[in-house]
Design brief:
With 887 residues, the protein is of the alpha+beta class. The longest helix is centred in the last third of the chain and has 39 residues, at 645-683. It binds adenosine-5'-diphosphate.
Length: 887
């Protein structure tokens, strides 16, 4: 080591050597040992030293010896020894140091020496300690110990005893123990003898086990029943330890018993537990879901109802698991609201859909309030969950209904308003209603009285009040309301309803008002009514019978004349109609024609007898016309029935008279004609015979001509009666129509030389008919043409085919013509055109009637085409004879 002296790293080397030295020493010396440098800093201390002073080895290195372990060695004697004594001598021996520890007084004998190492510049100090057992002693004396043990025994609230030997004989017991056992005599007695009731309660077995195994036993809240007096027992709860005691040979020789009476706590806790169980049982019977959460919001209790309602298991629901039973759509909101309420320690209220055990969702109301400990500290929440599904659905329905009502009201084109409360607050009114009132939207929210003050004094407030109180709906038809529209009071007419609105309990909360402005219709209807009543009044004063039907022919109205004539009331007439009053002879035809008119909408006209209330039938002419609207649709039938009985009778008399006259005239006229013919044949040779300036032959010829006319007239009148009596016989045969026309024209030309009659045979045919009768028709047409063409002598007869197998014979003249208005009547019996011409042209108005009848009886038809002043075309059309009719 010497060679290292003078080395620049000398210090390190010294240190190293000192350390090395110290370590070696520490390894070899077993006694407590310290090695210090010149400044008394610890270079090393061995384990024995550390043990002695209860310090960790590393804590002492590079620490001053006076500082270790809170200065345990910072003693003046040590300062003196190290700083003074060892400066003078190399070592000091067996210097005693006394150390006071908690439980003992330690006397250490210190040996210290100064060591001079060759390599070191300064010395090291070596300190060894030896436990001077002679002087080291326990702090307390046996007496002290015993006393303090006794103190502990006596004063400890615990019960202590020592049981000795395998029989567990009480060797020692403290006051508490004695008291616990009811101050029995126990010392020197075995447990079995002293506390016989303990045997059946398992204590002796435990003691035996502890004794046998040497393992201590710790019992918590173990119940023990002790006899008090002769018959009663007291139950106590003990926390106790059976600690085996051992002799010097380490053999178990007894048991130390330390017991604490915890009866009060146990009983109190049991009570709490019991009441909690009771409460839980009670809570489980409550028909609601109950829950309890801890401070942090996690759920620590849910009553049975939760589990049966949701089907969740206890494990699933605890903590925040209950949230999983909430509908996904509500879960987050409900969860957040709950956590927030819990954080703010505020009540919590939430409706959400909860999944039920069968997988359906139902609306529930979750209601929680914070709960507090006795110290008024927040202790989580407690709450209930109630099924409100039906209510919620109803609520939604009501809301939906209300929404629908609002949209219906607002969007309806018909005016609508809703008034609520007895004060009739305008809750809703759509634009149509506001327009109808002539107001603006500011009326909303006001009462009806405020919004429409002009209604005061009108019947509406009273009506609304009645509806509100009685619940009976009110219908108003064409009712008048005076409203201020554009600052002017105007009269309007409305069809409206007041309908009571009821809440879910059925109580009336408002009125729905729907209204339709019918002013226009009302006014025009009134006009119509007026004109209708005028019409009725008018129709009642006229002597004619007037009636009208609806478009289907149902009777609507009969005037007073009908009622007076038939003697039947309006209702019966409307029900049964007029046909039943028609004479049976005409009834069939009347019904046929009426039906025909109804189906074709053509004009109806017939003559028929009607039964008078006194039982007589009287002739009437019935006319009915279809009345159509602007679009040509049938509206109604209006009919007039005019009595023509007198005319008819007169006609009859005229006919009877004519018939009689004709009969009477027929024979003389025939004989006159015979004589005239005879005279003419005689005179044929004496053409120019003149008698008393009268040219005989022309006179006779004129007489003959007049007789022909007279004969025709007579036969026409006779035909007329035949027709009336339906006795007109037809002698049908097939003949050439062309020939008939030629012959007839020939005959007429013979007597009428003035007129030029031209015949056009455009078509040649035969017909199957009564030749004389068709000839008669032709004669009538041609003689009329002659008669009514005084200034134009051109007459044309045309035979032509109109349609397949139909032949038409037309007689055309260029005479006076007939105005169109008369066309429809000229084929009627006795019809003659009024006016001058009636007198100018002689006649009876029978010819065309007969012609028409004859042609109709041949299933043909007659037609007239004529213009006033332009001439006339009269024609008849007949069927061409068929092959087999040909003979
Ligand atoms: P009348 O004996 O009066 O001629 P008719 O029955 O033959 O009776 O004719 C009826 C009416 O028809 C006549 O009164 C006449 O006014 C009118 N009439 C008939 N034929 C013609 C005609 N060719 N031209 C003008 N008027 C005619």
């Amino acid at each position: 080591m010497k060679k290292l002296s003078g080395d620049p790293n000398k210090n390190n080397t010294i240190q190293f050597c000192a350390k090395d030295f110290a370590r070696t020493l520490c390894l070899t010396v077993t006694e407590p040992l310290l090695i210090l440098d010149k400044d008394f800093m610890i270079l090393k201390g061995n384990e024995a030293f550390c043990d002695l002073f209860h310090i960790e080895n590393q804590d002492i290195i590079i620490t001053s010896v006076f500082e270790i372990n809170d200065g345990v060695l910072n003693r003046p004697e040590l300062h003196k020894l190290l700083e003074e004594e060892l400066a003078q001598k190399e070592g000091v021996q067996d210097q005693n140091f006394t150390f006071e520890f908690q439980m003992e007084r330690l006397v250490l004998s210190l040996n210290a020496s100064r060591i001079k190492l060759e390599s070191e510049e300064s010395d090291l100090f070596l300190l060894t300690f030896r436990n001077n057992l002679e002087h080291t002693q326990n702090k307390f004396s046996i007496e002290d110990y015993k006393r303090s043990i006794n103190d502990i025994f006596v004063h400890t609230p615990a019960m202590i005893c020592i049981l000795r030997g395998p029989e567990f004989v009480f060797e020692l017991a403290n006051e508490s123990y004695f008291q616990f056992l009811g101050n029995r005599e126990i010392i020197g007695k075995s447990v079995r003898d002293a506390v016989p009731e303990a045997e059946n309660q398992g204590f002796i077995q435990i003691l035996e086990k502890v004794y046998k195994t040497g393992e201590p036993f710790i019992g918590n809240e173990i119940p023990i029943k002790l006899n008090i007096g002769e018959n009663s027992q007291k139950l106590s709860y003990l926390d106790f330890v059976y600690q085996p005691t051992r002799n010097s040979k380490r053999m178990v020789d007894g048991i130390f018993v330390h017991a604490v009476d915890v009866t009060e706590q146990v009983v109190a806790r049991k009570k709490v537990e019991e009441s909690e169980i009771k409460l839980r049982n009670f809570i489980d019977t409550v028909p609601a879901i109950l829950w309890v959460t801890a401070k942090d919001g996690s759920c620590n209790y849910l009553n049975k109802n939760w589990y049966s309602y949701t089907g969740q298991k206890a494990k699933e629901a605890e903590g925040f698991g209950w949230l999983k039973a909430i509908h996904l759509k509500d879960r987050q909101i409900a969860g957040k609201a709950f956590i927030e309420a819990n954080r703010l320690q505020q009540p919590y209220r939430m409706t959400y859909r909860l999944k039920t055990h069968d997988g359906k969702y139902r609306w529930v109301l979750d209601n929680g309030t914070p709960k507090y400990t006795v110290d008024e500290e927040f202790d989580g929440m407690i709450g209930t969950v109630v099924d409100v599904h039906e209510e919620k659905i109803n609520e939604e329905l009501v809301r939906e209904k209300e929404h629908r009502l609002r949209t219906v009201v607002e969007e309806a084109t018909v005016a609508m308003a809703v008034y609520t409360g007895a004060e009739m607050k305008i809750e809703l009114a759509n634009d149509a209603m506001i327009l109808l009132w002539g107001k603006d939207r500011s009326v909303l929210g006001k009462t009806l009285h405020e919004a429409l003050p002009e209604l005061d004094g009108q019947p509406f407030h009273k009506l609304l009040k009645d509806v509100f109180t009685t619940g009976k709906m009110h219908w108003g038809k064409e009712e008048r309301a005076d409203l201020i529209i554009n600052e002017k009071l105007r009269t309007r007419y409305f069809n409206y309803t007041y309908k009571p609105l009821r809440d879910e309990k059925g109580e009336i909360y408002g009125i729905l008002n729907m209204a339709l402005d019918v002013t226009q219709t009302f006014l025009s209807q009134n006009l119509l009514k007026e004109s209708e009543s005028h019409f009725r009044q008018l129709s009642n004063v006229i002597p004619n019978k007037v009636a009208h039907t609806d478009s289907e022919g149902n009777y609507v109205y009969f005037n007073q004349s009908w009622i007076d004539y038939t003697g039947v009331g309006m209702d019966e007439l409307r029900k049964d109609g007029w046909l039943k009053f028609v004479h049976p002879d005409e009834r069939k035809e009347t019904i046929r024609k009426w039906k025909h008119s109804l189906s074709t909408e053509r004009k109806f006209e017939i003559e028929a007898r009607f039964l008078h209330k006194l039982g007589k039938y009287k002739w009437h002419i019935i006319r009915a016309e279809a009345i159509k609207d602007d679009n040509g649709r049938l509206k109604m039938w209006v009919g007039t029935t005019t009595e023509i009985h007198k005319i008819k009778e007169e006609e009859k008399r005229k006919e009877d008279f004519l018939k009689m006259v004709s009969h009477e005239l027929k024979t003389p006229v025939t004989s006159i004609k015979g004589y005239v013919q005879l005279l003419l044949s005689i005179l044929n040779s004496k053409k120019d015979l003149v008698l008393d300036s009268i040219p005989l032959k022309p006179s006779l010829e004129r007489i003959d001509h007049q007789i022909i006319r007279l004969t025709r007239l007579i036969s026409e009148i006779l035909d007329l009666t035949r027709i009336e009596e339906d006795e007109l016989q037809l002698q049908k045969s097939v003949f050439s129509l062309n020939d008939l026309v030629d012959h007839t024209v020939q005959d007429i030309r013979y007597t009428n030389t003035q007129h030029h009659i031209k015949v056009d045979h455009n078509y040649k045919c035969k017909i199957y008919a009564d030749k004389d009768r068709i000839g008669q028709v032709l004669i009538n047409f041609i003689t009329n043409a002659i008669k009514y063409s005084p200034d134009n002598h051109e007459i044309k007869v045309c035979i032509e085919e109109t349609e397949n197998n139909l032949v038409q014979v037309t007689v055309k003249d260029k005479g006076i013509g007939i105005d169109k208005t008369f066309h429809k009547n000229i084929f009627k019996k006795f019809y003659r055109i009024d006016g001058e011409r009636e007198d100018t042209y002689s006649g009876f108005g029978i010819g065309l009637f007969l012609a028409n009848e004859i042609i109709q009886r041949h299933n043909g038809f007659v037609k007239v085409k004529s213009k006033f002043g332009k001439g006339s075309d009269f024609s008849f059309t007949l069927s061409v004879a068929s092959e087999n009719q040909d003979n």
